[in-house]
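Budget justification, computational time. The allocation requested in the original proposal was used primarily to generate structure tokens for proteins on the priority list. As evidence of use, we reproduce two of the resulting records. The first is shown immediately below.
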Amino acid sequence: MTAATGLVIRETTDTDIPAMAQIMSEVNPSHPWTPEALAHEISFLQSHPLGLHLAQWIVEDAGEPVAVAAILQFAGMYHPDRYHAEIMVLPVAERHGIGTRLADTVAAHLRERGAREVLAGAYEHQPHALAFLARRGFTEAMRFYDNVLELTDFDLGAWAEHERVPDGVRVLSYPQLESELGPEAALHAFHAGFAEAREDVPRTGEATELTVEDFRRRFENPAVYPDGLLLAVTDAGEVVALSELWRVDGSPARLNTGLTGTRRAWRRRGLALALKLAAIRVAVSAGVTEIWTGNATTNVPMLTVNERLGFRPRPAFVEMKWGGV
């Protein structure tokens, strides 16, 4: 590896997306990216009606991409003065000052934008990265576990009684709901249940309203797995609880859990557990051997359900914050 002074840092173009996805996947193999998924995410951010900010850089050493950085705003937790920062350096390129130079580039851009709050983070088993953020004035805000369920020996039969749902409620996949209600009515019913359930998910800032159009665009994501979108639906067609499975491109033996949640009036009736079990049944039928989910360490109700099912935590992601809005 050459000295950092021989490196080129430049803003990215669409032609860099495959290299960016490769770097992001190698730096954080627990959460791989495909070029298609990254292109979808970039397009969603750039075209969002909130005017979300996105700036990205790539670092080349002798023409070879070795690091990426990004500043972005998320629609789900939006404030005009809040930004999320990411810096990823390939392991072979670490300890050569690349992270420092990228951090300086990111910091200068944030000053130009007048940022009042910046969120960044690293895993708890990466103390050098956490110390790097601490030296730049970041303090811990929240921790999130990756929880993993190994399905090889999961005994669904032992959980049969917990798959039952209250009278007047059925468990349907999203395609089944579409066939009953029609695509547009199904979308609105799913959105209504999802939007209320997500409001109480722990996060480091206030949740932004989820519009129907934002929700519609989720189905453009190449990782969407319609048969893995499990819904508790009343006889009147109201979605009162849900648990989502999403594909992980390049990892056919794994599915990720999106949101599992229940509308407030329907909580403490076993719906979350029943839907998690329905999702596990779908995964087992598809030959999947692992389900991954992410949970804030403060989300005791969901952590309790997951631990009961046999999910086991991996090292936590530590979200760090600078400033505040």
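The second record produced under the same allocation is shown here.
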Amino acid sequence: MTHRLLHSLLATAGPLLLAACNSGGPDAADPAAEVATSPRAQVTVGYVATDTLTDVLRLNALSAYPAKDLLRATTTGYVLAPTPVPGQVVRAGQTVFRLQTKESRTLHLDKLTGDPRLRFSGIIAVRAGRAGVLASVDKLAGDYVQDGEQLGVVYDKSRFGFVLDVPATQLRYVRPGQRCRLVLPDGRMLPGRVAELLPTADATLQTQRYTVRLTGSVPDLPENLAVQVELDRTAPRPVPTLPHTAVLTDETQTQFWVMRLLNDSTAVKVPVQRGPEQGERVEIKSPRFGPRDRILLTGNYGLDDTAAVQLRK
């Protein structure tokens, strides 16, 4: 009786134990199901568009006042008050400094005559030779100066411009009279033109020097201000473009590629040859994409070839 009961229990529990062993426990997962539920990159797509772009050459330049009027003492004596201040606008022929000869101060000739305009008063006027802005004041009231000593510097604002150094490899794109654009550090863009070719070159950097003048109103800018000069290397032309976020590159920026949507869930890597960038668009020189090719615009960074993706709604 006992043996029959034990045999019956084993016959009943055996299939249950076998099923439990084959189940692998609650933590076991189906590999196919795991792949199906793996997270996918959320991406957005766009299409290649045709835009009118211009190949732009961007170079650096410095602001300069090439015409400077040095105000010098015309006699030995003392500087009289009031003295001008830097930044003061002066007219051509305006008295900027007044000097008193040392003989006049010793003999008090200006007080004896009562009229400093008289020739024998010993008061000498130093006038500006041209209109401009007083850039510096080197002497103050009461200073003793020698004949010919510098008192200040007047910048001729009408001759204000920029000095542009062009690399020898880019000389064919720059010529006198060419129109250009100057981008200031604060983002303002001013129209200008290439004025003169200067007969000087940097032997170390191999650059040719040009001057650039503004064609519109001249704002108040200091000397030696670094700006960017934009010159068009080509005429505007229609080219296929993509947003710059769609074009990826390596660390050395020698290889470029985009991620093209193969189907609704797979993106493939496509090497491209990029052209110049203008604004938010980049020219795609090759390959030639069709109007239905979907290119990843966002979510494309760091994806491998044939990456699993999901279109963002």
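A brief technical remark on that second record: Confidence is low (pLDDT under 50) at residues 24-28, 31-36.
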